[in-house]
Amino acid sequence: MSTKKKIGILGASGYTGAELVRLLLRHPRVGLTLLTADRRAGQLMGDVFPQFAPYELPRLVSIADVDWAKADLDLVFCGLPHATTQTVLKDLLAKAPATKVVDLSADFRLTDPKAYAKWYGHEHHALELQSEAVYGLVEIYRRDIRKARLVANPGCYTTTAQLPLIPLLKAKAIEPDEIVIDAKSGMTGAGRAAKEEMLFSEVSEGFHAYGVGHHRHMAELDQEFSKAAGKDVVVSFTPHLVPMNRGIFATIYVRGRRGRTAQELHAILTEQYAKEPFVYVLPFGKTPQSRHVRGSNMTFIGVAADRIEGRAIIVSTLDNLTKGASGQAVQNMNLMLGFAETLGIDQPAMFP
Amino acid sequence: MSTKKKIGILGASGYTGAELVRLLLRHPRVGLTLLTADRRAGQLMGDVFPQFAPYELPRLVSIADVDWAKADLDLVFCGLPHATTQTVLKDLLAKAPATKVVDLSADFRLTDPKAYAKWYGHEHHALELQSEAVYGLVEIYRRDIRKARLVANPGCYTTTAQLPLIPLLKAKAIEPDEIVIDAKSGMTGAGRAAKEEMLFSEVSEGFHAYGVGHHRHMAELDQEFSKAAGKDVVVSFTPHLVPMNRGIFATIYVRGRRGRTAQELHAILTEQYAKEPFVYVLPFGKTPQSRHVRGSNMTFIGVAADRIEGRAIIVSTLDNLTKGASGQAVQNMNLMLGFAETLGIDQPAMFP
Amino acid sequence: MSTKKKIGILGASGYTGAELVRLLLRHPRVGLTLLTADRRAGQLMGDVFPQFAPYELPRLVSIADVDWAKADLDLVFCGLPHATTQTVLKDLLAKAPATKVVDLSADFRLTDPKAYAKWYGHEHHALELQSEAVYGLVEIYRRDIRKARLVANPGCYTTTAQLPLIPLLKAKAIEPDEIVIDAKSGMTGAGRAAKEEMLFSEVSEGFHAYGVGHHRHMAELDQEFSKAAGKDVVVSFTPHLVPMNRGIFATIYVRGRRGRTAQELHAILTEQYAKEPFVYVLPFGKTPQSRHVRGSNMTFIGVAADRIEGRAIIVSTLDNLTKGASGQAVQNMNLMLGFAETLGIDQPAMFP
Amino acid sequence: MSTKKKIGILGASGYTGAELVRLLLRHPRVGLTLLTADRRAGQLMGDVFPQFAPYELPRLVSIADVDWAKADLDLVFCGLPHATTQTVLKDLLAKAPATKVVDLSADFRLTDPKAYAKWYGHEHHALELQSEAVYGLVEIYRRDIRKARLVANPGCYTTTAQLPLIPLLKAKAIEPDEIVIDAKSGMTGAGRAAKEEMLFSEVSEGFHAYGVGHHRHMAELDQEFSKAAGKDVVVSFTPHLVPMNRGIFATIYVRGRRGRTAQELHAILTEQYAKEPFVYVLPFGKTPQSRHVRGSNMTFIGVAADRIEGRAIIVSTLDNLTKGASGQAVQNMNLMLGFAETLGIDQPAMFP
Description:
By secondary structure, the first copy, chain A, is of the alpha/beta class. Chain A is built from twelve helices and 13 strands. In chain A, helix 1 (15-24) links the parallel strand 1 and strand 2 (30-36).
């Protein structure tokens, strides 16, 4: 259809690429006109993800072969690896400055160039873009996102933790120095690269933590939590892997400030998210299951009192490929292109 | 919206009920106005399936409390147990004769009352409806379905086996007396009733056959295969359970008639299904995976040559809750209500 | 063999019963002479657990039909439900006072009759036995267990948490008021009773917490932690369910007292368990996976520094059916009958 | 202990290597004195498989660094890749001719050099050893194995299919030209190499066939079935992958010869295996589950009548890592070293 916006996906052969295609194939206002995948260039999307074999989609091409000006894209989703992203987007936006970008990597999430250099061990290669980028946590930065050309889509762990904690930190309702986040992720969060430790027989029928004490997602959490709290915040964060495909589940242990009870924390979140289409706060004392958001763009949040007086337990869960990556990216796109925010991402979860 | 058709689901607390709600919540031409679930009457759908908590849906009621005339339903999906179905539908259609019905039970699938009595051990309680019912395998009976008031939605195993075999039997391209169907199903096919043998720890990390030699789905297969072949056909059929939620996968062993090769069988199916929106035949020699149709209404079919000369191996797979039950039911509804056949069931599979 | 001790299992049709049979069939010093299972009385063990069909085992009987004096058992494992246990063991020990008992229920774990009454809502029915019972956490109470007639086998969650925490509390190395235990369990921990929420399709492909804020295992933890710390201790404890069969995995967040570092905590545990056959402390900074203790009687413990200064993260994992139940029960039996402690339970984990 | 036999494992870092270590650590008559793993040379077995960290085991070495004469091994298990095996064993047996070998690769399973050359595309590099090798299917070749120096351990699929079919073919009780073997395997059968198609998210929650029409295990089946039938036999064989770790499950469709009924086939197998410690034939009409042999060296076989008159369905299941590989290898070792056949491999299955 002539009125459909032209969309590209860079790095379409990974799981977030497949999730974007799944969602966008049914989006009424856009058409996929460019799919890149360097190592699979020349192949069909149906060769890489057989579920798409029955659909008409552009053949996969190499990024080096794309003429950005000619491509004339309205918006690009960028799912490239760290560092490569900076170089590619710098080039793209130089040649096609009217194209908008939702970047799914971590490259543009940190606003402070010094923080970036510290965490990644080198200077940022696209400093001017870094300062332009808007952090794409829709429920917090919706207004800025509408006007942005470059949006840095948040990580899956960090979205799960921020949605319940940012409003509580802003309200100064919890102690910022005693936050413990015990996070659990499904396997798709680890990507599609062939590694021994991700083989079925290595990860099924068991449970484990990884990166204990030094997970790289923490820079993003530090930044946003400190901004919300108005002071430096360092949280305890431990990620684990669950033998399931999709889902992030965070059990968060907090202490109320100045006598705030768990029920008061619950009230703050209930009010904050009453009108949000993609955040649902359960009744007090109830906690959600990751399977009940599977495949949807929803975040489910529950709050209960802890046995230790003065403390509360917050549970937050979402689908790491949808609200934790590609679904939120489409939500950002909808805002950036002036569509209804829920367009194409309003399907209920698939359970069982 | 005033122009939306009014839809009811009888037996909404089971897995096929949840799948209907998932699909119909996004269907642009219908509204759910009645949900029944006798044991959960008075509860919200979100109590029974938490993924629906954020959506507005009618409260669950008991069938005994429904006034069919007042309910004024355009169409009812019936997911009640065997036998109960006959009684309820007889009553419903007597009081609201203009309501259309898609029945997901096995009660109206057999056209011969004698076959019914033999397989189920008693006379059919709604003989006049049985003769009215149209068998709802869309790709075969599309024309009759458009005009039907009562459609008997096919079983999941039988849909998987019939889509590849009916065209081959009609073309007299395979020996009807040497068909071996080795079928594998995900666990949702066994329903939501609490049984020891369906507990996670009983069925994960293992594989087994069940009902070897005497599975009840065979009556339906016998009827349709005999009709297609023009002679009595009895097939070998063995169902197995796979530790996964969704998916039916059938490996079918056949012998070509009069020298028909596997490639010729492949050509027949490719031609037959070239324009069907929900059947995709892979290139010759390739076979599909159940995960690539998960959550979609697609059937994927592959054909390869067997090592034994003159024989072929056919693989057919679909999602038992979608094309194998609720998706096909919506496909039937679309035809019966005059909508586009693919409306509301065109989402691609969700993988991973 | 004439010198083999005569062993009975009460409640042999559950998962802990099956695990006891698995371990005892290869134990060189004992013979199984009594298996009870009231609802399966008259059946063979191979009917209830087909893996035992090839083995010679006594037929299942009802407890009511057992003559305790005649049975002449050296030791009984009791895997009966709460409350029933008290009545049955009172009767058994009255009629066969020389029989020793390892009880796998929670009935005799609390030493304080008042605590029992508070948590369970009624008086204990066998008060004299409650005072006689020894708490069977071998690594802590080995000496008492050797002389005991009645041992209360610890729970699976509590064993996982106590093995790392008891030595640290005794050494006053951690703050007793800031302990957060985030625990994850495989599905066998929920038993074999047919419940909707334990069906494969309800628990696979997802993750959730349960009993947030009020789990019944806490009485046992409170008792033992308070004893170790020499003051009342209330911990935060949140259990979760993982879609796997076996394994308990606890991520424990602690703060060191008086400047104790994570490395010092690690040193205390390493020294404490250097000679224990069933506790292995990993090198500092490394954390274990539940799958690497599967089917073995081992507990693996890891310690790492937290990002928040002064705090440490302790990970502890064991197989809930082995060290968390039946394996530890056999370990107790070995001590009570004077065998080598590791006899029959020295098999390495089964991974993959 | 001085009287323990000295055992080596070549290729200890794969799953069959880990399974050998698991079984041999508890074997009372042997000690592990050599473990090789070229890419992991210098590491501990506990680095490669953390479940072995608490055990004393020799450090991993590179094959090139082994002095076979000095190593003075009584028996070697060889789990090296195809072709490499031939070269290594030729060298080993030249330098240490008294060492016995159980080879787990396919290199010595084919007795006919021409068949080998045809299937593998090159001449065999150790022809004299090929003619010396004994095929290690214990229940069929027990007598030859006792005297053998080099035993070719059978494959997992082929063991599963041969145990029920060889006696029936020898008895001329089934039609040799109409055998259809529909085989399903757990993921460990695919090994530990990092491949995209073996990642958790690629293989969980789904089912698929592979190598349809041309699986390499067929050479071994052709050879043994032809020998048993006394004529050339070509069977239909289709392997599938099940999202589970361990287990092979074969559903085998056969036609009785000269009116042989399913019950007669059952009687032949029951008699054949009445005294075998590792083969259990279920009562007629019952079929086994793969989970009930998990971790054991058992094969469970069931026979039922097919719906098609004159045909029968045979189900055979074993653990691919135990009876399908390392357990059968230890069974072979026991015979070759004069031990009791069941020593060290008599543990019951681990279910759940």
